[in-house]
Design goal:
Rossmann fold, globular, alpha/beta
């Protein structure tokens, strides 16, 4: 299973703890995490995954050294032209702000992988009031066009309960 662990930089602490626990168990099961190296939700998923392994993880960075990270999964304008094009087609205003365009293209990599051909099976995230807002909205708006990709927004109590139950069953 491939999942995107993403969300707001302002994700509440209890939700970030849940995200880390989910990522830890997912890593133990050999599932692949895709995230983006941002503070908050991204960091929580990455932290949980790293408690188990450095493998099966794609932390897509908008540029080398973003947030002090030095992974080899860095957005490249030539190599990932498809991601820039997809972001521009869906969010035409990003072209006016190059940094925003990079973040939007980076989110396309989180959803579709390096070559744009291997979508995630699910997105686990947190956004304020479970709305499609902030930088996470770039990924969520694309994912909503793919009914086979499940979205679990942990701002929704039902999603939290589902994942807490999954954790209980997984560690039992």
């Amino acid at each position: 299973m491939i999942y995107a662990g993403i969300g707001s930089r302002k994700t509440p602490g209890d939700i970030m703890d849940l995200m880390s626990r989910i990522a830890e168990v997912m890593a133990k099961k050999g599932h692949i995490l895709r995230s983006g190296g941002a503070d908050g939700a991204d960091n929580a998923f990455e932290k949980g995954h790293l408690m188990v392994t450095e493998e099966n993880m794609e932390i897509w960075l908008p540029w080398t050294g973003f947030n002090g990270r030095n992974y080899d999964t860095v957005l490249n304008r030539d190599k990932h032209k498809w991601a820039f094009d997809l972001a521009l087609r869906n969010f035409p205003w990003v072209e006016r702000k190059p940094v925003v365009w990079k973040f939007a293209a980076r989110n396309m990599l989180q959803v579709f992988g390096a070559d744009g051909k291997v979508p995630v099976d699910a997105v686990i995230c947190w956004t304020k009031d479970a709305k499609v807002i902030g930088g996470t909205a770039y990924a969520l708006k694309i994912v909503m066009k793919y009914p086979d990709i499940k979205i679990y927004n942990l701002a929704n109590a039902n999603a939290c309960a589902k994942w807490e139950e999954w954790l209980r069953k997984s560690v039992a």
